[in-house]
Amino acid sequence: MSHNTPQTNKTSIIVKSNYLIEASYRLSLQEQRLILLMVSRIKPEDKGFQVYRIAVKDFNRIVGIINEASYHRTKELTKKLLERSLQITKDNSVLQITWLSSAEYFEGKGYVELSFDPKLKPYLLQLKEFFTKYRLQNVIRLKSSYSIKLYELLKQYENIGRREFTLDNLRQKFGLKESEYPLYANFKQKILNRVLNELNEFTDLSFSMRERKDVRKVVGIVFVISKKRQQQTRKETDCLDNKKDLTDRLHEYYCLSPAQARDIIERFDEERIRANLTYVEEKQKQGTIKNIGAYTLKAIEEDYRIKKSRFELDKEQNRQASIDREAKNRLSESSERDYSIFRRNMIETFRKGLSEVKFKRVENEVRQEVIEKYGESNLMLEKLVEIAINHKLAKLSAIPPFEVWSKSDADVGAPTS
Question: Tens of pLDDT along 336-365?
Fold first, then answer.
């Protein structure tokens, strides 16, 4: 039995049959990343699937599990992925299948072995036609499973420059249920706009969209696709430059080999590395280090960074708590503004859909209620009537209250089990 150990770098390639890209399925962001990691390990000459052995620490880093010691999270994720199904539609068949045939976790050895379902072979192995190919680096930093799905759907049409979906078809591609984001305005705000922002920031292509309407109702989306002049965004370039500077510093000043320096950069975040290098410098000045290379490696791996007093930690925690409160207040204010705009737009749309007779009936009912409550001579009568009408239209159009609306915002990208 052969094993394929994962490595992630700029040259990792994803190749998928277009039938697989067009399939209907729903995965979480972590599950998407894991599938992409496995696909990137397939070689052009492979005639069958390998058993893909992945170290748990690498697994956790790639899929975004912060605590590398949380091995039980690895097992939970692979167990859920074993239950995820997809449906591949071809001219004369509909294949319902799961992604994985097995996931085996080895206690005490720190790795997991995964296998694709054999029936996926025609869609991942030795593809000659109707396939899409792209670099793993173009999607691995996307933060939404919807972003990865839409990137693949549009990447197929890169040379054509545009692709159109009916609204129902696009929702189906995303794996959305009828009860999820039933209002187009909500679907656009919570998913489409955010996905396009991510794709434009992190991938090799630029995207824009146009709405196709039947009278006033949006029934389809046209995506316009273009290649970026530069393959890297400013953020990507800055990140790569920082990593190169830090790699050179580890090699030239701290006597790590180029391979050791690259390994440290891959395994640990920049803040931890730089904090421990400051610690090593202090020890070097004191003349207590005999082998600076070995000491630096151990300092970063075991996190020797200068320890702070309880007073300093409490002060930092209080300061961070204050920053978090301010950020939370700003986020709440921003959400309330967004909800106010969303509610106003929905009321306006609903109002335009009413006949004048129906609207007049609502207006008369509301006016009578306001007069009964506040009196006909109230100086603010017209303003009170206007507010009450908007409240009535919001109720009639089933606009969700702020608490429900804001909760749905937090749930974007989280598939139901």
Answer: 887 788 888 888 888 888 888 888 888 898
The reply to whether domains 1-138 and 141-231 share a CATH topology is yes
- Which tokens belong to 363? 């207006």
**pLDDT band at residue 64 using 50, 70 and 90 as cut-offs:** low
**pLDDT at position 414, please?**
38
Which amino acid is it at 63?
V
Looking at residue 346, its amino acid is M
pTM: 0.54
Express each pLDDT in 184-197 by its tens digit: 999 999 999 999 99
Average pLDDT, integer, range 200-207: 89
**Domain residue spans in the chain?**
1-138, 141-231, 234-302, 311-410
Quick one: pLDDT at residue 70?
60
Taking the domain 141-231, which CATH number applies? 1.10.10.10
Element (H, E) at 13: strand 13-17
| Cβ-Cβ contacts under 8 Å for 345 (sequence gap 6 or more) | 185
How much helix, strand and coil, in percent to the nearest 5, is found in the chain? 55, 15, 30
The per-residue DSSP string of 79-123 comes to: HHHHH-EEEEE-SS-EEEEESEEEEEEETTTTEEEEEE-GGGHHH
* Architecture field, domain 1-138: Orthogonal Bundle (1.10)
Which two tokens mark 331? 């986020």
pLDDT (tens digit per residue) in 82-135:
888 888 888 788 999 999 999 888 877 878 899 999 999 999 998 887 888 888
**Which long-range contacts link 323-326 to residues 24+ away (Cβ below 8 Å)?**
none
Please name the amino acid found at residue 404: V
Neighbours of 230 (CB within 10 A): 9
Write down how long the chain is: 417
Region 141-161 average pLDDT = 90
Q: What is d(CA 368, CA 390) in angstroms, rounded to the nearest whole number?
A: 15
